[in-house]
């Protein structure tokens, strides 16, 4: 077991642990050079790992509209004169308008220059922030 673990150590420490010459010559294998189409947002999301972390579900556009509506309802508790409320309302209303004007997920992502999954996550975080802003 110690020999297996020693393969992760720098060379000077490997020799002190008694690692075999085979382990010393072992290196990382290069990943094959793959042609990525950066204009295809679905391929790009998979390549970057967004799909793995945020998991695209069917009806992402509807989920974004629902999340934006939820933030707009939550922000009503903040005083109308607050700059924070004005900024959040303006942002959410603009994004809502873009969602209503574009039927496809790719169209919305193109206009907003962001992934829908990230925007939904951002809305959830903003909604959690509102109670703290009321107390401030």
TrEMBL record:
Q: Which UniProt keywords apply?
A: Electron transport, Membrane, Mitochondrion, Mitochondrion inner membrane, Respiratory chain, Transport
Give coiled-coil spans as residue ranges: none
Highest rank taxon of the organism = Eukaryota
Q: Where in the cell is it found?
A: Mitochondrion inner membrane
Its placement in the membrane is given as: Peripheral membrane protein
Membrane-spanning segments: none
Could you confirm whether the keyword Lipid biosynthesis appears in this record? no
GO BP annotation list? respiratory electron transport chain
State any GO CC term: mitochondrial inner membrane
Main localization is mitochondrion
Q: Does the keyword Ribosomal protein apply?
A: no
According to its UniProt record, which protein family does this protein belong to?
Answer: Belongs to the complex I NDUFA5 subunit family.
This chain belongs to which protein, by name? Answer: Ndufa5, NADH-ubiquinone oxidoreductase subunit
